[in-house]
Specification:
The complex is a heterodimer of chains A (136) and B (392).
Chain A: H1 7-14, E1 20-24, E2 30-31, E3 46-50, E4 54-63, E5 76-83, E6 88-93, E7 109-111, E8 114-117, E9 127-134
Chain B: E1 4-11, H1 22-37, E2 46-50, H2 54-58, H3 63-70, E3 78-81, H4 87-101, E4 106-114, H5 120-127, H6 143-158, H7 162-180, H8 194-198, E5 202-204, E6 207-208, E7 217-226, H9 227-233, E8 238-247, H10 262-275, E9 284-286, H11 292-301, H12 310-315, E10 326-327, H13 332-335, H14 343-356, E11 370-377, E12 382-390
Parallel strand pairs in B: 2-3, 2-4, 9-10, 9-11
Antiparallel strand pairs in B: 1-7, 1-8, 4-7, 5-6, 8-12, 11-12
The chains are: A mainly beta (136), B alpha/beta (392).
């Protein structure tokens, strides 16, 4: 059974600031990132849909220590965002000083952008990541 | 199903970077466990070994085969278990099932790791491999960052101001260091005060250095046998009476449960139901305190304290000796250390030693009869629980 929305396709769409998901024909849940079967009801009957790219910060952290090869990136903010369509996704937050990030960020509205992680020797190539910014 | 007993345990000291190989570490712990059991390597029918990052730490894959041969358990089936930090508990659970089923009578289970040998940059990179590599690692997720985000969620969800929560988290670390100080197997043996915790450097906000467990080297091994064999080998068998295991997808897809970890609640329920016990029956528990906030989340999901109240319990001493349940008398991952492939077996080692009254008086739980372990791999990708009962 062919995979309906691969990482490659998801990542290429994200490079155009589009978040793609899979809407479940059975329960209506939108799966992001894509799966073979819905992670709510396990149905494999899914259709590709595009999200609005807007949502609300649920939680965050500023990373000061990071992995080998990414030392130049710290400090940076990681966020979990609830998209308006329901699913949560992980990304980074720009335009906020990582040293000044506080719990005030929680529930702030954000919109999607992207940045490409070029990959390292373990990652099987590059991957786009959501780079959110505060909605003004 | 047959009853299954732990009849011997062995463990190296958990430590920082050191020079023994994984096979050497494992062999030392394994021989100690066998000697305790009055068994010989040739008696072992199968090996179940947790090892996560040997490939990265010393370029050694398939370590279980070399470990079996090295200790003289020649040509036995040897299997490697990888469930991130829960690997050894997975290995023990599977070993339990093979013996319970009647297929084997005597097996060895445990794990080994050289996480400290890798050094912090590579260890941080490889530990991040337990998050979703394609959809979450590009954002620079690290293991501390996962629990840092859960800490902020916890603060919000339960309405505990972050400053207050951080004090509660610090109380967890202070208690773990206090017990670890007396544990000769512990990696970090020092007194750490609340002030020191709260003034240590920031790793991933709001988690500071002393909120985080260390990367450790070490091995831990146990011998599992059928009840019939146990009766011939020891008058102090420790029975495994409940086991549970569950899995989850990427952190973001666990959304509605967070900061609770659904896999733990499923796994713990399996273990409780199988043992016919409830949380109030547990005397001692070794739980997965990879980060201070992780202890609060774990203790609540295991049913020891109400949701949002575990921090207060630690502050009041209810999670220590003389409390409602004595948690991490070994020093936990925080002070005893976290050689990830061995950690779950180390938890069982501690429970067995506690039952036998063989630990230092400063951290000995008197008369403990029922113990529980809790081991978490990744961001709850793998969760294992074991319930152990004193057989005498």
């Amino acid at each position: 059974m062919e995979y309906k929305l691969t990482f490659k396709e998801y990542s290429e769409a994200l490079k155009k600031n589009k978040v793609l998901g899979l809407k479940c024909q059975e329960c209506g849940w939108i799966n992001v990132p894509p799966k073979m079967a819905c992670y709510k009801c396990a149905s494999p009957n899914l259709d590709v849909v595009e999200m609005s790219g807007k949502g609300k910060i649920q939680t965050f952290t500023t990373a000061f220590v990071t992995s080998e090869g990414r030392e130049d990136e710290v400090p940076y903010i990681i966020v979990l965002v609830e998209l308006d369509e329901g699913p949560w996704i992980m990304g980074n937050l720009t335009d906020v000083d990582p040293n000044e990030a506080t719990m005030e960020l929680i529930d702030k509205r954000v919109k999607i952008g992207h940045k490409v992680f070029p990959g390292d020797k373990y990652s099987a190539g590059e991957g786009a990541r959501p780079l959110f910014s505060l909605e003004t | 199903m047959r009853k299954v007993a732990v009849v011997g345990v062995g463990e190296t000291r958990f430590s920082g970077a050191q020079e023994k190989t994984e096979v050497e570490l494992f062999a030392e712990a394994a021989m100690d466990a066998l000697n305790e059991s009055s068994l010989k390597p040739k008696d072992i029918q199968a090996l179940f070994l947790g090892n996560v990052l040997g490939d990265f730490a010393e370029g050694q894959g398939m370590v279980q085969a070399f470990a079996a041969e090295n200790i003289g358990a020649l040509n036995i089936p040897a299997s490697r278990y990888e469930g991130a930090c829960a690997s050894a508990s997975m290995a023990i659970r599977d070993a339990f099932m093979w013996v319970a089923s009647g297929f084997y009578d005597i097996v060895l289970a445990g794990g080994v790791e050289r996480a400290a040998t890798m050094g912090t940059p590579l260890a941080t990179r490889t530990f991040a491999m337990f998050s979703d590599a394609r959809y979450e690692y590009p954002s620079g997720i690290t293991f501390p960052a996962v629990f840092a985000m859960l800490a902020h969620l916890y603060s919000k969800k339960y309405g505990i101001p972050l400053k207050k929560l951080k004090e509660q988290m610090a109380a967890v670390s202070v208690q773990s260091y206090k017990y670890g100080m007396f544990n000769p197997k512990a990696h970090l043996r020092k007194e750490v005060t609340m002030d020191k915790v709260l003034n240590s450097f920031m790793v991933s906000s709001p988690l500071q250095l002393h909120d985080c467990c260390p990367f450790s080297d070490g091995a831990s091994v146990i011998v599992l046998v059928s009840e019939e064999k146990a009766k011939k080998l020891t008058n102090k068998p420790v029975y495994i009476t409940g086991v549970g295991q569950s899995s989850s997808g990427p952190l973001s897809n666990q959304q509605e449960y967070l900061p609770r970890l659904r896999a733990r609640e499923i796994s713990a329920k399996q273990a409780y139901d199988m043992a016919g016990l409830t949380p109030k029956d547990i005397d001692i528990c070794e739980l997965h305190d990879c980060f201070s906030i992780a202890s609060l989340i774990a203790a609540e999901s295991l049913g020891f304290f109400e949701f949002g109240k575990a921090g207060e319990a630690w502050e009041r001493g209810e999670a220590g000796l003389g409390g409602k349940v004595a948690i991490n008398l070994s020093g936990g991952l925080k002070a005893k250390g976290h050689p990830i492939g061995a950690t779950g077996a180390g938890q069982v080692y501690e429970i067995v030693k506690q039952f036998r009254g063989e630990v230092e008086p400063e951290r000995q739980a008197e008369g403990a009869k029922i113990g529980m372990t809790d081991t978490l791999g990744g961001d709850a990708g793998t969760l294992c629980n074991l319930i152990l009962q004193r057989g005498w």
